[in-house]
Design goal:
Layout lengths: L1 E6 L3 E3 L4 E9 L4 E9 L6 E7 L4 E3 L7 E5 L5 E6 L9 E8 L2 E3 L3 E2 L1 E3 L1
Parallel strand pairs: 2-12
Antiparallel strand pairs: 1-3, 3-8, 4-5, 4-9, 5-6, 7-8, 9-10, 9-11
C-alpha cells in the first residue's frame, strides 16, 4: 500500500512562489508516475503537472512556464515549484501516484493574496 502526504501549501502574495512537496511511503515501486492536481470549489479536479519515472513531464497550459514538477532522487517524493502565482492558483493541490494502482494524497491548500 502507498500513502502520499502533501505539504508546503500556505499563503503567498500574487507573483510570489511556493514549493509543494509530496512524500510517498509504502510500496512505491507500484508507482510509475506522479502528478499534481488541483481542485477549486465546485469544480472538477484538474491536472496541473505529471512526471514519469523516466522524467517525462506534462503540464497544463495554464501553468506551463510558471510551475515545475520534479521527483526526488529516490522517487519517493514529488515536488511542485510554483512561481508567479496568481489568485486563480489559490486552490487545494493534490498529489497523485499511479501505475498499476492509483493513489491520492489528502491535499494542501494554497492561498494567494492580491
Amino acid at each position: 500500500q502507498v500513502q502520499l502526504v502533501e505539504s508546503g501549501g500556505g499563503l503567498v502574495q500574487a507573483g510570489g512562489s511556493l514549493r509543494l512537496s509530496c512524500a510517498a511511503s509504502g510500496s512505491i515501486f507500484s508507482i510509475n508516475a506522479m502528478g499534481w492536481y488541483r481542485q477549486a470549489p465546485g469544480k472538477q479536479r484538474e491536472l496541473v503537472a505529471t512526471i514519469t519515472n523516466s522524467g517525462s513531464t506534462n503540464y497544463a497550459d495554464s501553468v506551463k512556464g510558471r510551475f515545475t514538477i520534479s521527483r526526488g532522487n529516490a522517487k519517493n517524493t514529488a515536488y511542485l515549484q510554483m512561481n508567479s502565482l496568481k489568485p486563480e492558483d489559490a486552490v487545494v493541490y493534490y498529489c497523485r501516484g499511479y501505475g498499476a494502482r492509483d493513489y491520492w494524497g489528502q491535499g494542501t491548500q494554497v492561498t494567494v493574496s492580491s
